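>> received
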Amino acid sequence: MLKFRKATLRSAGVLLSRAAAAQPRACLSTGPQQKHTTFYEFRTYCIRPDQNASFLKLTNEKIHLRTAHSELIGYWSVEYGGLNQVFHIWKYDSFSQRAAVRAALAQDPSWISDYISKAIPMLTSQHNEVTYLVPWSRLQGPPQEGGAYELVSYLMCPGGPAVWGDAFQAAITSHDAPGYGKLVGAFHNEFGLLNRVHALWWFKSADQRAEARHKAHTDARVVAAVRNSVVHLDSQENKLMFPCSFSPLK
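>> returned
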């Protein structure tokens, strides 16, 4: 009888093991995994109101001291959504590269004496975020130089792209169509506020952006996509910006 029970238990154990192996494994990931090391540092500087013009002039004259060390993607002056602010994006291949760049800048006498020692007193605050391009987006230049850029930042509900990624993608790509703006890139935060994503848009002008905004309100396709996404949204903010003369993205 004891041998029978042992045999029965062994058989049941084998069956349970086989059943467990046949079950799909639960995915603990909150979204698509990063497959590359390239990241983009977002930097926002707030400038003393009486020093805004002086800061932009100094940066225009000395930005080459900074770009000698790493790649500048774009540099903008914020017109709406933040007074006396500049926003810039820097590209790095890895965190070790960024660390090496920061170390080199600290030892660069021209950078220190000709720029940073003069620029820092003109600022009231600095803020940065580390971002990656979302898997379905790539960085693109505008169809022509000039125009206006809009940075829209969304704070999504906790849970990550596994919860809201598809809805967010649908809402953004619904606007990336003729008659709307041009999507330059969509990014998600690695450092800074988590569950925060950004869309950087280009428009021919601020007025064209306003026209596109009104058009979206009556476009059933866009409205439906936004409604599906907004249920995952906690808050959002935006800035309308114009590229500086030395910005690679113009």
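>> The beta strands are 39-47, 71-80, 85-92, 123-133, 148-156, 182-191, 196-203, 233-243.
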